[in-house]
Design a protein that fits this description.
Elements: E1 18-20, E2 33-35, E3 42-43, H1 47-53
Antiparallel strand pairs: 1-2, 2-3
């Protein structure tokens, strides 16, 4: 199940925020931001948001010996 993103705190209609990943790259610090398509503002995610909305790559499973 995909978690529901937070709503924009500035817009009266409270549209959902988008995860802007234009500043992220493999092997670098996860520097994504929340983005509102209505008012075009950006917000830094909270530590809780980073845990809930950061996708971790799957680790290949090794058979037990």
């Amino acid at each position: 199940m995909v978690p529901k993103p937070p709503s924009c705190p500035q817009c009266p209609s409270r549209p959902p925020l988008w995860k802007d990943t234009t500043r992220t790259a493999p092997g670098f610090e996860d520097r994504w931001r929340w983005y509102c398509t209505h008012c075009t503002r950006r917000w830094a995610p909270t530590p809780e948001h980073r845990l809930r909305f950061t996708v971790f790559p799957r680790v290949p499973q090794r058979p037990l010996r």
